[in-house]
């Protein structure tokens, strides 16, 4: 009887330890990696840009916020085409990220590190990060080459 009880307790302990290992392995938090630091340029009067900043904060990004009256000089500096411009511009590493771009696209950009200047999603699509409403159609994110060429980066 004593051996049977001990056997059951050992099985339970092993199961508990296995569960802890599995849950720890599935965790997205990697405390050994520092948070990515980004710079977000926005108008001080834009509410949706503030919501996008909060979205980035929740994704564990360190956000350096640069509020200014006119962000067109920043867009010009990074070569963002006029027809792809949105209400804010973010710099992540060596890339610009223009508009309310979902984290999935930013992660793809930083993982693949293509030879481009940046990515952009023009306008302020409903349901995109920082924007109210439901998503009505796929988000089309464009890649902007260092030479100014434009191509589709991804659809979400």
Explain what you see.
By secondary structure, the protein is α/β, with parallel strands linked by helices. The chain has helices at residues 2-26, 47-58, 72-77, 103-112; strands spanning 37-43, 62-68, 88-92, 95-98, 118-120, 140-144, 150-155. The protein has a single domain (37-155), classed as Glutaredoxin, CATH 3.40.30.10. It is 34% helix and 24% strand.
Pick out its properties.
156 residues, single chain, Glutaredoxin, globular, 7-stranded mixed sheet
Largest sheet: 7 strands, mixed
Number of domains: 1
Q: For the record, what CATH class applies?
A: Alpha Beta
- What structural category characterises the helix and strand content? alpha/beta
What number is the mean pLDDT?
A: 83
Order of helices and strands: HEHEHEEHEEE
Condensed summary:
By secondary structure, this protein is of the alpha/beta class. It is 34% helix and 24% strand. The protein has helices spanning 2-26, 47-58, 72-77, 103-112; strands at 37-43, 62-68, 88-92, 95-98, 118-120, 140-144, 150-155.
Describe the secondary-structure layout.
Layout: H1 2-26, E1 37-43, H2 47-58, E2 62-68, H3 72-77, E3 88-92, E4 95-98, H4 103-112, E5 118-120, E6 140-144, E7 150-155
């Amino acid at each position: 009887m004593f051996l049977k009880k001990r056997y059951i307790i050992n099985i339970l302990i092993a199961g508990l330890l296995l569960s802890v290992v599995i849950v720890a392995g599935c965790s997205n938090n990697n405390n050994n990696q520092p948070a990515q630091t980004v710079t977000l340029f926005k108008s001080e009067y834009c509410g949706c840009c503030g919501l996008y900043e909060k979205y980035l904060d929740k994704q564990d990004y360190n956000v350096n916020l640069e509020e200014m009256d006119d962000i067109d000089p920043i867009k010009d500096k990074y070569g963002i085409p006029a027809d792809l411009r949105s209400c804010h511009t973010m710099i992540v590493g060596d890339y610009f990220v223009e508009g309310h771009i979902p984290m999935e696209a930013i992660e793809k950009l930083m993982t693949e590190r293509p030879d481009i200047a940046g990515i952009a999603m023009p306008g302020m699509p409903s349901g995109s990060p920082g924007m109210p409403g439901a998503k009505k159609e796929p988000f089309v994110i464009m890649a902007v080459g260092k030479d100014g060429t434009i191509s589709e980066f991804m659809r979400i």
